């Protein structure tokens, strides 16, 4: 039963278990470990404990971080900035439809990772050749989602505070329209979508009593409301229907009839406004010919 500690590489990042390997460390220490990306410096965020799973393969801590390691990490920031600038230049030169988010270099500079977002798959083979010829090291391109992009860049939410994923969230839980309906919130796209364009993570904070199996969203419920026009119209129609139902309770039967006639005339006017200009001209000519 090996002794392990929890190590985090980025603020609000995931915590990974590493075997102590006979090295005495405590919470708050910086250590050098061999991660899946390469040699990196991590922060010890949990005290050591013992795990019962003997078959689980854990990587070991190499050493405590020295002054040379910390100095090297600071120098790597200059390399990351240079790689970011050069990569942006090559992306514009080759006209690739991608957005570069950040760069990350390993402690030993044997690998540079570029994180980017794109709407579809990108053929970046020529871009990798350009970067490899420039920096003489291994180049890795990683496509991430819009939620991960918002977590890296950071921003302010509609509440005026920094994004939750930038402050304390380590993982992204599934968020669905069902959460909004259960909490009886206003179905307004501008208030439901976060900086990433997806449903805000805070919609699930007061929905923790229900198991995740009950809130697993379908494909239609997890779409981006700010990007999908049909979903936006669906939410707006649902909100209008709710308002109309509440208002109709006040009116008498005669007032209901006048209200329905008024809404029908408004709908016809709105429908005519949405008609193409060519179709409206054709309709006008037909009406004029009929009157003549």
Would you write up a description of this structure?
This protein has 292 residues and is α+β, with helices and mostly antiparallel strands. It folds into four domains: 3-65, no CATH class; 71-144, 2-Layer Sandwich (GMP Synthetase, Chain A, domain 3); 171-247, no CATH class; 251-291. 40% of the residues lie in helices and 16% in strands. It has nine helices and nine strands. It has helices spanning 67-94, 125-135, 146-153, 164-167, 177-182, 189-192, 229-248, 253-274, 277-291; strands spanning 3-8, 15-19, 30-34, 39-44, 49-50, 61-64, 99-105, 111-117, 138-143. Strands 1, 2, 3, 4, 5 and 6 form a six-stranded antiparallel sheet that branches. Helix 1 (67-94) packs across helix 2 (125-135). It is flat. The N and C termini lie far apart (96 Å). Mean pLDDT is 76; it is low at 215-256.
């Amino acid at each position: 039963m090996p002794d392990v500690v929890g190590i985090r590489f980025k603020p609000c990042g995931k915590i990974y278990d590493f075997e102590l390997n006979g090295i005495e460390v405590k919470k708050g220490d910086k250590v050098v470990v061999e991660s899946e990306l390469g040699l990196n410096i991590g922060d010890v965020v949990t005290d050591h404990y013992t795990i019962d799973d003997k078959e689980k393969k854990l990587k070991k801590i190499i050493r405590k971080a020295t002054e040379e390691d910390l100095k090297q990490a600071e120098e790597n920031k200059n390399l990351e900035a240079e790689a970011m600038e050069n990569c942006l230049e090559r992306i514009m030169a080759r006209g690739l439809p991608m957005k570069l988010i950040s760069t990350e270099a390993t402690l030993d500079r044997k690998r540079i990772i570029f994180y980017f977002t794109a709407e579809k798959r990108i053929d970046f083979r020529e871009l990798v050749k350009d970067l490899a010829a420039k920096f003489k090291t291994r180049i890795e391109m990683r496509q991430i989602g819009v939620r991960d992009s918002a977590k890296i860049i950071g921003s302010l939410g509609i509440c005026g505070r920094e994004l939750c994923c930038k402050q304390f969230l380590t993982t992204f839980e599934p968020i669905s329209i069902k959460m909004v309906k259960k909490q009886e919130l206003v179905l307004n796209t501008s208030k439901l979508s976060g900086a990433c364009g997806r449903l805000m993570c805070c919609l699930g904070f007061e929905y923790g009593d229900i198991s995740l199996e009950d809130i697993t969203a379908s494909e239609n419920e997890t779409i981006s409301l700010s990007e999908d026009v049909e979903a936006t119209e669906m939410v707006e129609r649902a909100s209008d229907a709710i308002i109309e139902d509440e208002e109709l309770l006040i009116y008498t039967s005669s007032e209901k009839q006048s209200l329905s006639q008024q809404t029908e005339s408004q709908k016809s006017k709105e429908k005519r406004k949405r008609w193409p200009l060519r179709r409206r001209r054709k309709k006008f000519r037909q009406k004029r010919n009929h009157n003549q």
